[in-house]
Amino acid sequence: MSDSCEYIICGGGTVGCVLACRLSHAGHSVLIVEAGPEDYNEQIMSPVAAPHLHGTQFKYNMMTVEQPGLGGRSVPNHGGKLLSGSSGINYGLWTRGHSVDYDAWAELVGDNRWSYKNMLKYFKATQTHYDPNGSPEKYGFSGPITTTAAARTYPLRETIRESMLVAGLEYNPDTNGGSPFGFGPFTENWKDAQRQPASKAYDLSKATVLTNKAIARIELNESKTATGIVLIDGTRYAATKEVLVTCGALKTPQLLMLSGIGPQSHLAQHNIPTIANLPVGENYHDKISATFFWKLKNPEKGYALGSPAFNKPEFRHGNPMEWVATISTPHEELVKAAQADNLDLRDPYLQEPRGNVEVMIAYAPIAGGGSEFRVPFDGKHISSPVVLLLPTSRGSITLASTDPTADPVLNPNYLGTETDRAAMRAGMRLSLQIMEADIASGIVEGETPLPGYEPLTSACSDSDLDRRMQIVGSSFFQNAGTAAMGTVVDTQ
Ligand SMILES: Cc1cc2nc3c(=O)[nH]c(=O)nc-3n(C[C@H](O)[C@H](O)[C@H](O)COP(=O)(O)OP(=O)(O)OC[C@H]3O[C@@H](n4cnc5c(N)ncnc54)[C@H](O)[C@@H]3O)c2cc1C
């Protein structure tokens, strides 16, 4: 191949593949460089194998630093390391953000192109919505990513639907249509029971694709314009138009900092000359999750994964879940927590109800990656994971060394704010209420807590919930914010 092209894309992940496809189809010469391999083996493509990809060569298997919000535990955090990036290894959940979040974001960065109304055409262009009778105002029907929702009928479908109603949630058939509130069908993006990795869904045949090649740094000229890249083996490639950095939220700050773009004082610690003094790596946040496990009264009826009677072939076509619920932190508790955090009471976060936390019910004891407490997949338990959707805690990603292949230092500062803890408490209480309805209906015997702990009820104290979060809290792998719009990059 030529060592020069118009665009070089650093990182062949989810975003990199989309950009490489669009730019090359528009007639540009594009080189996309990916550190990991191209692979579509059975384990990668299977919708039920994603949890088994932890710890493999298809991932950066990193650990956070010790987290005070998690009682001092350090927990695993991951990103995909293969062509397609994290879309090649993730859980396939397809959740569109709340319209209010996009609008607040657009206002914050002063560019209305990022508002929900203006982003909608891209959301639509991306997807082929699962319901051909769905609203064309809200969804697209000819995009490269096919979605499915509540696509498999599990034995507990109606029981869980009923318990969501008993817990006071309203049914929302369109949780991906701009407002996630209430509960509705759990949406995924498997197609014909297979993963849709970005490098397959977006045609790369017109781009030059390099795999198993890690980039050591970006080259910049005297006017601070990126002109090319250097690989760790010393090979150089030049870009006549642009170098696009799409290495994901965990590795993008590392590549920028190794190229002289980052906080000056931190770069100086590693003897890296500063080309642009920018808050790269600051503003890091991730979503934390906490899961409850529930012992079934009659496991022989085949309600959960692991039971011989839980055996319809379609149960292997996606995650064993049907419903997802999203709620706000109750306003009074939110304001009290925000005051404790010294949050400006005019903050957009406090103005309109936001989707602060979500609750899922899984027909398997699914735990987050960092929780030490696990229950076997033997058909005797279901679970109710709770996920914080809008973390206000901010941490940082910094360099451990100047070695581009070393892991950076991850400090997401999980549950660092009272606002985040209040949101998690609200979600955990809802999760307990939903499952208490299942205890009442005789499906569930009760909560299985960690050894030495009492089961919790929705009437438990805040400190009981806080303690539980500290012990079982773990990453939901939604890393973000490390090259933030408005501080590190502009809105273009
Ligand atoms: C385990 C897991 C489960 C998830 N589940 C879901 C889910 O169910 N639903 C959902 O919406 N989101 C999920 N996510 C998050 C989602 O997949 C990511 O937010 C998204 O894919 C990020 O896209 P990206 O392009 O920014 O980065 P990525 O897709 O991670 O791509 C970054 C790419 O850059 C490459 N790279 C990095 N550094 C270099 C370098 N120096 N040289 C060359 N290449 C480099 C990496 O190898 C990688 O391929 C999950 C993530 C993980 C890790």
From TrEMBL:
<feature type="domain" description="Glucose-methanol-choline oxidoreductase N-terminal">
    <location>
        <begin position="248"/>
        <end position="262"/>
    </location>
</feature>
<dbReference type="InterPro" id="IPR012132">
    <property type="entry name" value="GMC_OxRdtase"/>
</dbReference>
<dbReference type="GO" id="GO:0016614">
    <property type="term" value="F:oxidoreductase activity, acting on CH-OH group of donors"/>
</dbReference>
<dbReference type="Pfam" id="PF05199">
    <property type="entry name" value="GMC_oxred_C"/>
</dbReference>
<dbReference type="InterPro" id="IPR036188">
    <property type="entry name" value="FAD/NAD-bd_sf"/>
</dbReference>
<dbReference type="GO" id="GO:0050660">
    <property type="term" value="F:flavin adenine dinucleotide binding"/>
</dbReference>
<keyword id="KW-0963">Cytoplasm</keyword>
<dbReference type="InterPro" id="IPR007867">
    <property type="entry name" value="GMC_OxRtase_C"/>
</dbReference>
<protein>
    <submittedName>
        <fullName>Alcohol oxidase</fullName>
    </submittedName>
</protein>
<dbReference type="Pfam" id="PF00732">
    <property type="entry name" value="GMC_oxred_N"/>
</dbReference>
<keyword id="KW-0964">Secreted</keyword>
<dbReference type="InterPro" id="IPR000172">
    <property type="entry name" value="GMC_OxRdtase_N"/>
</dbReference>
<keyword id="KW-0134">Cell wall</keyword>
<comment type="similarity">
    <text>Belongs to the GMC oxidoreductase family.</text>
</comment>
<dbReference type="GO" id="GO:0005737">
    <property type="term" value="C:cytoplasm"/>
</dbReference>
